[in-house]
Specification:
The chain is of the alpha+beta class. The protein has 2 domains: about 10-210, Alpha-lytic protease prodomain-like, CATH 1.20.1510; about 215-300, Alpha-Beta Plaits (2-Layer Sandwich). The chain has 8 helices and 4 strands. It has helices spanning about 10-35, 40-65, 80-110, 115-145, 150-175, 180-210, 215-230, 260-280; strands spanning about 235-245, 245-255, 285-290, 300. Strands 3-2-1-4 form a 4-stranded mixed β-sheet, covered by helices on one side. β1 and β2 form a beta hairpin. The longest helix is centred in the middle third of the chain and has 30 residues, at about 150-175. The termini are far apart. The model is unreliable at about 1-10 (pLDDT under 50). Bound molecules: zinc ion (2 copies). One zinc ion binds near residues 71, 73 and 74.
Length: about 300
């Protein structure tokens, strides 16, 4: 007898698409568990799953859009599609968290007994087992294909398994002790956790939409590369960078002796562009040439 390895999916993007299907299945299970019990804790767990389905789908679309090459109406490329998707996801996550907090507050004010809590716990446990298996599979495939996105996706799924385990344990205690307030309490804790991750996602991506500069380390590397390859020029100033997902746009003024020929100064520009695009992954360089009368007395990078 030969042992077949469980490996039905052979490409990273197919796994990413399958991930959406698994997340949808898990969300359906969790909503059934909430529907049976009326538990706020299970409601929060189910809404978190829905958020996962939507974010996974949005991420897949965003990655495809941002990979489109530059064209006439978007000459700098479509990289920022990823930021737009992330801001929308973040906003959605925040709405889900507020919905849970609202339901939790309602349940504190008007407590209701949980219906068939045992069934709800079992269904949620099954859904979490599916998630645990799928998360481990994703991490394994991600390592095999060296795909950081897949590994991150798998880790996220496994994190959700821990959230669900916490929800189940808390609900179990609530059922055993009869402390009904534990249910909305757990739901509210999950909501705060979701609110925090949604806010972080939104803020990080808004900064990218507002033309965030390259990191200080990258800026240092840019300056060092310019200094090492600008022989013949006098000074570089007004260095500006902006990051769009995988691209880093770099522009600056290059001061050369006023009598230098256009051909010679252009040679320096070509050398700098080649060096920077080799040193900075995804770098795109634009250089403005100036005569020595335009040199700045302070703040310039002397060559
Ligand atoms: Zn376009
Ligand atoms: Zn200048």
């Amino acid at each position: 007898m030969t042992l077949m390895r469980f490996d039905p999916i052979r490409s990273a993007s197919a796994v990413a698409a399958a991930s959406i299907g698994v997340a949808a299945l898990v969300a359906v299970f969790k909503f059934i568990a909430f529907g049976i019990t009326g538990s706020i804790a299970l409601y929060s767990d189910a809404l978190e799953s829905i958020v996962n389905v939507v974010t996974a789908a949005a991420a897949l679309v965003a990655v495809r859009v941002s990979a489109q090459p530059a064209d006439a109406d978007h000459p700098f490329g479509h990289h920022k599609a990823e930021y737009v998707a992330a801001v929308l996801e973040g906003a959605l996550i925040i709405v889900a968290a507020l919905a849970i907090l609202h339901a939790a507050g309602d349940s504190f004010l008007h407590p209701k007994a949980l219906q068939s809590p045992g069934q709800g716990l079992i269904i949620t446990a099954i859904a979490s087992a599916i998630n645990a298996g799928w998360g481990s599979y994703l991490v394994g495939r991600g390592r095999h294909w060296r795909s950081p996105a897949l590994i991150a996706d798998g880790r996220h799924v496994l994190t959700d398994v821990w959230t669900s385990a916490g929800v189940l344990a808390g609900l179990g205690v609530a059922i055993l002790t009869g402390y009904q307030w534990l249910d909305p309490m757990i739901g509210a804790l999950v909501a705060v956790h979701i609110l925090w991750s949604g806010t972080r996602l939104t803020m990080g991506s808004l900064s990218g939409l507002l033309d965030e500069a390259a990191s200080p380390q990258l800026q240092e590397q840019i300056q060092a590369t310019i200094k090492a390859h600008a022989e013949g020029a006098l000074q570089v100033h007004d260095i500006r960078t902006r990051v769009a997902a995988a691209k880093t746009f770099i522009e600056f003024h290059l001061v050369v002796p006023g009598g230098m020929s256009v051909r010679e100064s252009h040679g320096i520009c070509d050398r700098l562009e080649d060096a920077l695009e080799a040193a900075i992954p995804g770098g795109e360089v634009l250089i403005h040439v100036e005569p020595d009368t335009k040199a700045k007395s302070a703040g310039g990078l002397e060559i």
